[in-house]
Design goal:
single chain, mainly alpha, about 5% strand, globular
Length: about 450
């Protein structure tokens, strides 16, 4: 009875008109819908040379840490885990394309989170968010969605390079793209029927088929937790004086800033947590988001952020932080399933990336397509992300084009000083890089 009363008092269950049983059910629901991150995050980050078993431990501990903090300190049913958009940027761009080590990429994540935390505490975050046009905020989410989907199509072999057309459809008789299509159909059907954990079920389904066909191996279900040592405290921030490294930090900060804020507000609206359009304890919640990312970088994983899948638990009745605490506990229990996570092939994960990308496309309706000065910068921002294989390039082109169009169409009053500052900084970056290449 004492324990029960303590839980009711800590999470204010009576004030929120909920029960322990309902919150536990909501927590389980949220966990099932987002548990795919346990398998997908190590699969993507292993592309950088990081040990997948160690990354799994970093992923589940970092996620648990964020969920527990959010539940206990902010008392919201918001679950946190490494975000797929920034995980892809981390692996495929910062390490794969720009050539930084994964240790340096972790350092950039840590620095970006530290800046995010300071901006939040100093209340500067609100000024930044208000200074960015709504159309560009929405297009960032859409562009990242296309980028993630493109990665899924590429990694599965559904889309391949072509010397004549640049890209083309892969050989659909090959095992990888064929099984990826099967997984995509399975997830789509389950998701359409509102089955909880549709993505997770689809990934496991494809994995099981691949084992039966002999194209992937089975390493077992449960084992002693692997060591986190290969990635723990390996972050490197000594590249801070490199201007291109600073741009990496900026992109992580920029995306995390709007992704976290947008998700917080969207999920809060669904749960009825907003008061006069604002989320009480927003500063605390965003600070937890930033601290979780810093902690995750120290552990050895990509940026930790609030998940939109938290909405599934809210719809199941979750109203308090007890829901998040349950999710955190379930993440901790996941440290024993490393054999499963490390044996799932990338083509089994690819359908999940495509589906996640489709989720993020919903923000396209919030772009003002009737105003060309809003539509073109948004469109360019969106298409430059997948077409140049870079989230950063998309943001840069959108931010540069937006104020220029407004200036020459007599709508300069619709811009903000922040947009002009960002435009000048991006132009200076290109100018600086151009001079360096010319000299060398």
């Amino acid at each position: 009875m004492f324990f029960k009363n303590l839980i009711y008092n800590i999470f204010k269950l009576k004030e929120k008109n909920t029960t322990i049983a309902r919150e536990i059910l909501a927590g389980i629901t949220t966990f099932v819908t987002m548990a795919y991150v346990i398998f997908i995050n190590p699969a993507i980050l292993s592309k950088t040379g990081m040990d997948p078993s160690a990354v799994l431990i970093a992923t589940v501990i970092g996620s648990a840490f964020g969920c527990l903090l959010m539940g206990i300190l902010a008392n919201y049913p918001f679950a946190l885990a490494p975000g797929m958009g920034l995980t892809a940027y981390f692996a495929y761009i910062v390490v794969g394309q720009m050539g930084y080590s994964w240790q340096a990429a972790l350092g950039a994540v840590f620095m970006a989170a530290l800046i995010f935390l300071l901006l939040t505490i100093l209340k500067i975050r609100n000024l930044i968010i208000k200074g960015i046009p709504e159309s560009l905020k929405s297009s960032i989410s859409v562009g990242i969605g296309l980028f993630i989907s493109f990665i899924g199509l590429k990694e599965s072999g559904i889309i391949v390079s072509n010397s004549s057309t640049f890209l083309s459809l892969g050989d659909m008789t090959n095992t990888s793209p064929l099984l990826a299509i099967v997984g995509l159909v399975v997830i789509a059907i389950l998701r359409s029927r509102d089955v909880k954990g549709a993505i997770l079920i689809g990934v496991v389904f494809v994995w099981v088929i691949s084992i039966i066909l002999g194209v992937s191996q089975f390493n077992g279900f449960i084992s002693k937790p692997p060591s986190i040592e290969p990635v723990f405290l390996k972050l490197d921030i000594l590249n801070i004086l490199d201007i291109s490294y600073l741009s990496v930090i900026f992109v992580i900060l920029f995306v995390a800033l709007f992704d976290a804020t947008g998700t917080f507000l969207g999920v809060s609206k669904l749960g009825g947590f907003l008061v006069n359009g604002e989320l009480p304890r927003m500063t605390r919640a965003l600070s937890i988001d930033a601290v979780s990312t810093m902690f995750g970088a120290a552990l050895g994983t990509s940026p930790v952020t609030v998940y939109v899948e938290s909405s599934s638990g809210i719809l199941a009745g979750g109203k308090t932080g007890l829901t998040s605490v349950v999710v955190g506990i379930l993440f901790l229990l996941s440290i024993f399933i490393a054999p499963i996570a490390t044996s799932i092939p990338i083509f089994a994960v690819s359908p999940a990336l495509i589906i996640i990308g489709s989720y993020m496309m919903s923000s396209v309706r919030d772009i003002n397509w009737s105003d060309f000065t809003e539509a073109l910068p948004s469109f360019l921002l969106i298409v430059f992300m997948p077409f140049t294989f870079s989230i950063a390039n998309g943001i840069v082109i959108g931010v540069i084009v937006y104020p220029i169009l407004k200036l020459f169409t007599g709508k300069i009053q619709e811009t903000t000083p922040l947009m002009w500052i960002l435009m000048l900084l991006f132009l200076l970056k290109f100018f600086y890089e151009g001079i360096i290449k010319w000299i060398l």
